[in-house]
């Protein structure tokens, strides 16, 4: 039987954010916003959901007197993303070679 797809990751913007973070490990909010073409408000909401799930860590600090938010993928987030990809592959009947 197929494993259910993770509802946290099964959202276009959250999946795009996790896909980006899986490759760079951490990124500033503005970089994620630019790469995903998201609005700041929508991205903030989706980042909070990923944080609440324990998939990312959010670091808020000041950089040159300006607030700066950095998102970093957690080991739990890496596992969840890998499981999500495996589930998709099973749905699509793709096997790793």
Automatic annotation (TrEMBL):
Q: Which SUPFAM superfamilies match?
A: Winged helix' DNA-binding domain (SSF46785)
Q: Which InterPro entries does UniProt cross-reference here?
A: WH-like_DNA-bd_sf, WH_DNA-bd_dom, WH_DNA-bd_sf
Q: In its UniProt entry, what is this protein called?
A: Transcriptional regulator
Organism, as annotated: Danxiaibacter flavus
Pfam families per the UniProt record, alphabetical: HTH_34 (PF13601)
State the source organism's domain of life. Answer: Bacteria
- Domain Winged helix DNA-binding residues, every copy: 13-92
Signal peptide range equals none
């Amino acid at each position: 039987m197929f494993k259910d797809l993770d509802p946290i990751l099964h959202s276009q913007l959250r999946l795009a954010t996790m896909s980006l973070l899986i490759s760079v490990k951490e990124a500033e909010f503005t970089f994620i916003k630019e790469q995903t073409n998201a609005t700041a408000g929508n991205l903030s909401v989706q980042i909070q959901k990923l944080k609440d799930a324990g998939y990312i860590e959010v670091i808020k600090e000041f950089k040159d007197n300006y607030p700066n938010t950095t998102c970093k993928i957690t080991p739990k987030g890496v596992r969840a993303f890998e499981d999500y990809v495996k589930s998709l592959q099973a749905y699509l009947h793709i096997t790793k070679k």
